[in-house]
Amino acid sequence: MRFIVFPLFLLSLFACKNESSKPVDLEKKLPTKKLAKFEPADGKCLLFVGQEMTAIGGLAEFNDGYLDHFKTPAGFTMYTKIRPGDEEFGFTYQNIPSGIFTTDDWGDSPSNMSLQVADEDFKNMALAIGFEMVNHEEKIANGSHDSIVMVLGDWIKSLGDRPVFLRIGYEFGGSWNHYDRENYIKAYRRMKDMYDAAGITNIAYVWQSHGWDEPLDYLESWYPGDTYVDWCSYSFFSRFDESNMIKFARKKGKPVFIAEATPTINGPTTKTNGKTKETILSNPTQAAEAWEKWFIPFFNTIEKNEDVVKAISYINCHWKGNRMWVDNPTFQDVDARLQINTDIAKKWKDKVYTDRYIHASDNLFEELTNKNKQ
């Protein structure tokens, strides 16, 4: 038996040595990363535009916005609020989510998502919803507002296969929202649990910070949990270089949605009182400064983090023309409409009209849904 086993032993050693000398195909050896809900592949980025009907355009009455001057993006961003009884800029919130079924204006120009989703120009666009619950997070957390919360959920469900990115309590740590952290987390979780129980499957849940002065442990303390968050998110305004959200998201294995972005440039007192430099894109000098100090860093952030930053939303807004921002030190001197400067518009097109950025298409919804079926 020894004379039989010994040659076989040598043969096995030779085979192992020969096998180990073969080059390893790392592409086949590495496991495929599971994508989050509606997340595109690495190197791809969904392009959204917002944040109200005047800024977006594409409607008979609102016809000088982004959609009227540029290729239709992958999605649009709008806002709704559950704040029954509260008043803001002369508008009183009712017992239904605002800005969905009726044309409502709480100081930031008119909003009516039903008009948009019914319009042909919007039929192939995903929807990002900024959901606000200021002063009412406790009532959502304890179930007092369940019936109103379900009105929003039922409407989202009625959109069929249209992907909806729901930013529950966006900019959760912003002092202007003054959310109670414990109730914020409970409210976020309750809404997702309710919608899951109702069989609403076209929602990706987005957890969004305000985007500066947020240490990692601070972000962790507000985090609803991996099972409740599909996408991490933050706002890209002035002080964008202080954000830790991309680092936090990479640690959690989540994609990032830069859900609010508009050119705002640091001034000498920005860190103390929020005041940014005047930035009117129709002004050639100010537009050139905006491109160098905001747009280039914005695109660099996307391109240098292509494994994480998978969606962006540009706010194409005439900020200083809306009542809500007249006294706001960050936006009171800003007009971010891309179409009012031909040079900026061309540079924008040169960037976003490339293969990296995803626009609307007949098969967009199907492609985003099927990304999860790997």
Q: What report would you give on this structure?
A:
- With 374 residues, this protein is α/β, with parallel strands linked by helices.
- It has one domain: TIM Barrel (Alpha-Beta Barrel).
- It is built from 13 helices and 13 strands.
- The protein has an eight-stranded parallel barrel with strand order 1-2-5-6-7-8-9-11. Strands 3-4 form a two-stranded antiparallel ribbon. A two-stranded parallel ribbon has the order 10-12.
- Helix 3 links the parallel strand 1 and strand 2.
- The longest helix has 21 residues.
- The radius of gyration is 24 Å and the shape is globular.
- The relative contact order is 0.15.
- The N terminus is likely disordered.
